[in-house]
Amino acid sequence: MYVWVAWVMFAVSDPAGFPDHPHRGFETVTYMLQGAFTHQDFAGHKGTIRTGDVQWMTAGRGIIHSEMPAGQGTQRGLQLWINLSARDKMNEPRYQELRREDIEKVERDGVEVRVIAGEAMGVRSSVDTITPTMYLDFTLIPGAQVHQSIPDSWNSFVYVVEGEGTFGSWNSSPVTAHIALVLGLGDGLSVWNKSSEPLKFVLIGGQPLNEPIVQYGPFVMNTQDEIDQTIEDYQFCRNGFEMAKYWRSQ
């Protein structure tokens, strides 16, 4: 089964946002493209991520958190939900914050890659991932090309953030911004920028869990019985949701 649960590009302006809400059974990865967002949760984690920063939150057995705009104008970013295996779904929640300047970056032959998770061009990210994951942010100047290896068995996809690129083979039709491509299994991904403008895209890959998955809103488990139990735990503030009775974001 796929390791990904959800993928979204968001654009939010104050007073909109994502006020207090629960999660269980997976991780969220938020990558800010423009502006700032503040995270708070009932485990005591709090932080503001700005353009180029990353927040990696493990909901595990249960978390309630908020994500609210912290800048002027429109805040833009990408959010990925990563499933956890059955053995990890009831882990304690945790929070990792990666500042823009701390993200490993490589520049070579007109290609820049920011290594948020995994490895590229001989550089490895410092982020600790529970589910083996690759999260790479590429920028190619006009005329540049790149090949990135991907483990044979991994699920992977590309999302074009800006510009236009040719993916897979030289003769493929160009793909423009805000399009996602789900990749087949193979030896990796080749990309060419034949346009006159820079190309920016993210490449995300992960090891399949090969387990059943049942999602109900903010909860991601393996069976319907586990979903029913999660809803009950949340409603009665137990088994990981004890603080739900008292906690409110500030």
From TrEMBL:
Named cofactor requirement(s): Fe cation
CDD domains: cupin_pirin_C, cupin_pirin_N
Ligand binding (Fe cation): 21, 23, 65, 67
Entry keyword Metal-binding: yes
A Pfam entry, by short name: Pirin_C
SUPFAM superfamilies from the UniProt entry: RmlC-like cupins
Cofactor info, note text: Binds 1 Fe cation per subunit.
Keyword annotations: Iron, Metal-binding
Domain Pirin N-terminal: 15-82
Origin superkingdom: Eukaryota
Molecular function per GO: metal ion binding
UniProt xrefs under PANTHER family: PIRIN, PIRIN-RELATED
Protein name: Pirin
